Amino acid sequence: MNYCILNRGDNMNFTELTDEEFRKFVDTQDTKNFFQTIMMKERMEKEGIPVYVVGVKKDDKVVAASLIAETSHSFLGYKSFEAYKGFILDYHDKELVSFMTSEVKKYLKEKKALRLFIDPYIVNVTRDMDANEIEGEDNRDVAQYLHELGYVDHPDGAQVKWTYCLDLNKSEDEIFKDFKSNHKNIINKCINKYKLHVRQIDYDELNIFKECTESTCLRRGFPDKSLEYYQDMYNAFKDQVKYLICSIHLSEYKESLEENNRLLEEKISKLSDAPANEKKRENFKQDIATNNKNIAYVEELQKDHDDEIVLACAMFMTYGDEVVYLFSGSYEEYIKFNGQYLIQWDIIKYAIENHYKRYNFYGIQDVFNPKGKDRGVYEFKKGFGGYVEELLGSFELSISPVNGLYKLLKKIKSIIRK
Asked: Which of 158, 159, 332, 359 has its Cβ near the most Cβ atoms within 10 Å?
């Protein structure tokens, strides 16, 4: 990358940054996120996506920075650009935001840009677990100022606006205690009854992860990432990306069921013939019958499967102060084992042990629609405690007048389709 000063303001220079300058600055910022990292730049460049590293220096000190990627979209030779979760700067410094915006606009005009998308990684307004506004951060004035600078809301942005988070400022026991009863019961069953295992897989096993996510995406009608994407993320982020799988060992589960039956038989043998014990005896016998059905189910599985069966998987980013839950999958035929619950608990424990400040469950939808088709995802994440986080949202900045023509034609096309 050529290092060159592009413009000069009042003690401020807009410039291309070296990778090291970018990295050093971003590491000091509260709004740092894995999208705005040199690792992400390297991954995108490997896919052939041009990425520009720009920023602002004040008195030769970096005060703003951003990766800006060229998207695949084009119109009449004009290209769209996106600063994923950027810019990285103090959004309450109006002079800085204004300068960064005007200089980025000039910079991108030279690259025949149509428009630029940004989605700042800052909270819009603080909310509780039910998405009610509560006392805390309120950055709606930032959105207003962005509008004044020419940005317009882009509700169809690719990046999520509504996320779910869990602060990790308590002990492991205290955090588990705050889970909903159903979640605690399921996790305990995963550990004590099903004897499930969670482990991190390496590069050579990513096909196992891909098979699981692909199964889920086909079932739910979602597009899946390619195996190459998961491999590239692994290579780019190394130990900062984690791929976990949850599996059951059939022989271990069967042994657990048989041991439970032995304990139940002992309890029955110790009961006297008193009528008051008859209900207990019947309940124990029903539990044994249920265990026997499960043993028969395991024996059927053992005929056609290896001892270890993968139930679920999930991908996590560990960067800065947070662990972020990105993608996951689970096999429908094994959904009753609830492997995803144990994966979540395992990564939360990891985050606590490694002193991360929060766990980010990432995107949620249908926050205000209890009957929405994606409400279940919100309820699942909500069961672990935590709170709804509403980000500022996605914004579009027109770079070329041609963008107006593009929007007009898009609107006409939409009307015709109706």
From this structure: 359
| Secondary structure (DSSP) of 54-104 | EEEEETTEEEEEEEEEEEEEEETTEEEEEETT--BS-TT-HHHHHHHHHHH
Supply 357's token pair: 């400040």
Distances from the Cα of 311 to the Cαs of 204, 249, 337, 384, in angstroms? Answer: 19, 10, 8, 20
Residue 278 to residue 50: CA distance in whole angstroms = 74
Closest CA to 228 of 248, 203, 192: 203
Residue with tokens 């016998």: 285
Identify the sign of the CA torsion 228, 66, 314, 71: negative
Question: What pTM was computed for the model?
Answer: 0.92
Q: Using alpha carbons only, give the angle 210, 161, 139 rounded to the nearest 5 degrees.
A: 145
**Residues pairing with 318 in the sheet:** 323
What one-character DSSP code corresponds to residue 169?
Answer: -
Asked if 377 and 361 count as a contact pair (C-beta separation under 8 A), the reply is no
| β partners of residue 69 | 51, 82
pLDDT 10s digit of each residue in the chain, 418 long? 444 545 555 689 999 999 999 999 999 999 999 999 999 999 999 999 999 999 999 999 999 999 999 997 788 889 999 999 989 999 999 999 999 999 999 999 999 999 999 999 999 999 999 999 999 999 999 999 999 999 999 987 667 899 999 999 999 999 999 999 999 999 999 999 999 999 999 999 999 999 999 999 999 888 999 999 999 999 999 999 999 999 999 999 999 999 999 999 999 999 888 888 899 999 999 999 999 999 999 999 999 999 999 999 999 999 999 999 999 999 999 999 999 999 999 999 999 999 999 999 999 999 999 999 999 999 999 999 999 999 999 999 999 998 888 788 777 776 776 6
User: CA 82, CA 41: separation in Å to the nearest integer?
Assistant: 12
The three-state secondary structure class of 7 is strand
